[in-house]
Design a protein that fits this description.
The protein is mainly alpha-helical. The protein has one domain: Vanadium-containing Chloroperoxidase, domain 1. About 55% of the residues lie in helices and about 10% in strands. The protein contains 12 helices and 6 strands. The strands form 2 sheets. It has a 3-stranded antiparallel beta sheet. The chain has a 3-stranded antiparallel beta sheet with strand order 2-3-4, covered by helices on one side. Strand 5 and strand 6 form a beta hairpin. The termini are far apart.
């Protein structure tokens, strides 16, 4: 049995969210540089009906979409993520992640204390609070945040990626925009491969969340038993942050599939930074949980979207 709260305030909020859904999907899906390939284009042989998007040095090809094909790529994506740290060309980024993680873990408790003090001074409440808009039985199907900290925290819970993917898929189906549909499927594939990877890392590291800490900086209990992890998850699941990895992966997919939209990275970075701060303020994560999360999210997004790139001579932007 579904129950929909129909007070005017709730309906206004739902209406605004629907508008945002359509606006965001439309913003990402404008055809700034689309061609249907033909013999006049000097490119390697590609199937007919490919939509090309050429911007500066980026030539992206989007063809027939199939969500099952994306899902079949997940194991290979995870293998690419796992072996990336062992490639010589990734030695410098790996070192940067390792060093920054070590330094931040060293100062985790001090940074958390500082964030909490600053938030108290500016009136940013640490607790998460929601308005239940739609409930289905005992399940809270749709909730809205009641304060700023909750809104920032909620951005990394996966709903942002799902909304964007849904909007892009809807827009792509209506307008026959293969790039939009492919991006929706890429987000889905990345969400799964990144999510499984972070879960494996969490179960290996076994770090306490700040709110469940038994010592300053949180205790580490590597490789906890499956039952122990399931029964007392906050004792083991802080490192790395799945929320931040999700946001970074989403930003990476969008930025790679829409290279002409230069606002994606700066806007996405501000959103990710706000979410990262909120999670420390809420004492869900330590700042030391973030460098590896950023690396996993970035790698996941790059691996998923790389298949769209095609070698081609440099061409000017085609409006």
């Amino acid at each position: 049995m579904s129950t929909l709260k129909t007070q005017p305030a709730y309906m206004k909020i739902l209406f605004i969210n629907a508008l945002l859904f359509l606006t965001i999907s439309s913003a990402f899906s404008q055809n700034d540089s689309t061609l249907v390939i033909d013999n006049s284009i000097n490119l390697p042989a590609l199937p007919s009906g490919i939509q090309l998007h050429i911007y500066k040095n980026d030539t992206l090809a989007f063809g027939k979409t199939n969500i099952l094909k994306n899902l079949k790529n997940v194991p290979a994506d995870m293998w690419q993520i796992a072996k990336s740290p062992f490639k010589k060309k990734n030695l410098l980024p790996l070192t940067a992640v390792a060093v920054s993680t070590g330094l931040l873990i060293w100062q985790d408790q001090n940074i958390l204390n500082g964030v909490r003090q600053l938030s108290d001074n500016i009136g940013l409440r640490p607790e998460t609070a929601y308005i239940d808009v739609i409930t289905i039985g005992n399940v809270k199907a749709f909730r809205l945040p009641k304060n700023l900290n909750t809104a920032l925290y909620q951005l990394g819970q996966g709903g942002t990626s799902i909304i964007l993917a849904g909007g892009l898929w809807t827009y792509g189906k209506i307008t026959h925009d293969k790039r939009a549909i492919s991006t929706a499927y890429d987000l889905t594939e990345t969400f799964i491969s990144m999510g499984l990877t972070t879960q494996i890392l969490k179960r290996i590291s076994g770090r306490e969340s700040p709110f469940a800490r038994t010592v300053d900086g949180g205790r580490w209990r590597p490789l906890p038993a499956f039952s122990a992890y399931q029964n007392n998850t906050p004792r083991y699941d802080a490192f790395p942050s799945g929320h931040l990895a999700t946001l970074v992966a989403t930003i990476t997919v969008l930025a790679n599939n829409y290279p002409e939209k230069k606002w994606i990275v700066p806007v996405g970075s501000v959103v990710a930074a706000g979410c990262a701060y909120a999670m420390i303020n809420t004492e869900v994560h330590w700042i030391g949980d973030y460098p590896l999360a950023i690396a996993v999210g970035y790698l996941s997004g790059k691996i998923t979207t790389w298949r769209h790139k095609k070698n081609a001579p440099r061409k000017r932007f085609i409006p």
